[in-house]
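In the design runs reported in the main text, the only information available to the sequence generator was the tokenized backbone. The following block is the verbatim input for one such run; it is reproduced so that readers can re-run the procedure and compare outputs position by position.
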């Protein structure tokens, strides 16, 4: 595996700042009840790319973040605020099914 790899079993984890950014995108997506595929469609990017961002595998450009913000219906600054919150130690807990409107 490449030294830049970040697989959970790898000796080289993903950078914490990218993981925090991915967690922020994931949280906003989950709060809206969007799948990665739906967010990808709304943002005009592949669902696998959305997933890689959420896992912290990719360092997205400002253009990509702007497209994600539009797809999520938020301002870019909302993504940045959640990112900063995560970096400061707020773990951004996973939403419950009730938080995102999932019911069985």
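Verbatim output:
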């Amino acid at each position: 595996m490449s030294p830049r790899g970040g697989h959970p079993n790898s000796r080289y984890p993903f950078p914490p700042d990218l993981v925090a950014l991915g967690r922020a995108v994931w949280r906003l997506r989950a709060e809206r009840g969007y799948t990665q595929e739906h967010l990808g469609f709304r943002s005009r990017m592949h669902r696998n790319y959305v997933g890689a961002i959420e896992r912290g595998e990719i360092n997205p450009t400002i253009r990509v973040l702007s497209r994600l913000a539009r797809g999520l219906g938020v301002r870019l600054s909302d993504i940045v605020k959640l990112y900063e919150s995560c970096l400061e130690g707020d773990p951004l807990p996973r939403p419950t099914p009730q938080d995102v409107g999932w019911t069985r």
